[in-house]
Every structure is written in structure tokens, then in C-alpha cells.
Amino acid sequence: MQYKNILKRLKALSNPKAIEGMAKFGITPKRTFGVSIPNLRKIAKGLGINHELALELWQTNLRETKILASMIDDPELVTEEQMENWVKEFDYWEICDQVCQNLFTYTKFAYQKAIEWGGRDEEFVKRAGFALMAWLAFKDKKAEDEQFEEFLLIIKNESTDNRNFVKKAVNWALRQIGKRNLNLNRKAIETAKKIQKIESKTAKWIAKDAIKELTSKAIQERLKEGDK
Question: Which candidate, 132, 125, 68, 56, places its Cα nearest to that of 92?
């Protein structure tokens, strides 16, 4: 009954114009109602944490049910097998980023999968690896710097992948790690300078963009203030 009510609510919030707009930004699910993320968060808040319902929602091949699944699932109950099954179904950037942000970042497999997926070849599996690195750098306040230093090596190694959604995620992860604290800022800039020397247009773009932000006055002042 709860599942059917969710589908009814999603249909009621359907927005055809939003679907047209999403396509312009590379959001291209096979089936969608065009429901906004804020509206999905409202629905998720009303549902609460529910692992079994999340699994059921994921099986319905709709943009909205999959994103809702990531919002209500219990990260403590998520298995490595579930993560592998879900990541294989990522076929556009929004679902990748939403699931990583809402759920995968909070699982006990997050660091392991960031490393594994960052080295995989499938476009959105690889993006998921770097999205996890970025979200972990932003959200996991208790993590040691060494965990992110390991990510920097992978970022350097994968910096020549010229696929748009991969290179943007590599750049995102590098910048987010470099904004964590002064030590990681210095190491991220060092990594970016190494990447800059690689004979690759993609690598040079990733490096230049990261260095510009990480050496900026605003970032440097914020990090110095936080280090006091």
C-alpha cells in the first residue's frame, strides 16, 4: 500500500517541462516524472528510513523511485553486493551523484569502493568512485588525512580520461580534498602540478582548474582560519 501511494504521489507531482529542462543538463533517465529533488526530499522525510522499501523502490525503473531509494535506505544494512548491483545501473550523472551523496558515502564500504570504482572503466562506475572521494572529503569530518592522500594517487593516475562526466568528477574530487585542510590543500596542489605536466589536454584542464581554486585567496584564508 505504501509503495502504491508513493507512485500516486510522484505522478501527481509530474512536471513535463522539468523533463525537457533536465535533458539540457545531461539528466537523461529512461523513465521519469520530472519531480524536483526538494520534493523528493520531502517525500523521503515523511517515509523515514526503510531498507526493504528502498530495495522495492529501486526495482521500479524510474528516476524518482531510485533517488528516493537512496534517500530512505539504511546505510548500516547496505551490503557490498547491493552497492555493486546498484552502481552497474548508473547511466547518467544525477543518479550516480545522488546515490553516492545520499547513501553510499555513509556505508562501511565507502572508502573501499571509492578506490575500486575509481580504477574501473565503465563511465558512471568510475564517476561514482570519484564522487565518493569528493563526498567523503566533504562529509567525513573524522577521517585521517592519509585516507585522502591515497585518493590523490588514483586521481593522478586517472586524470587523462577525457569522458566529460569522468573528468569533471576527477576534478571535483581533487578540489574537494584540497579544501579539507591546509595539509591536504598543499598535497592536492602538489598533485595538480604533477598532473599539469602530463601530455593530456584533459589532465591539464583538471590541474589548471583545481590549482586556480585551491590557491585562491578565499580558500587559503578559510583554511588558515580553520587551522588556528
Answer: 125
Answering whether pTM is above 0.85, one says: yes
What confidence tier does 27 reach under pLDDT thresholds 50, 70, 90?
confident
Cα 210 to Cα 219: distance, rounded to the nearest angstrom = 12
Average pLDDT over residues 62-87: 98
| C-alpha cell belonging to residue 188 | 592536492
At 155, the amino acid letter reads: I
Q: Distance (Å, rounded) from C-alpha 72 to C-alpha 28?
A: 23
In whole angstroms, how large is the CA radius of gyration of the chain? 19
Instruction: Report d(CA 194, CA 186) in Å as an integer.
Output: 13
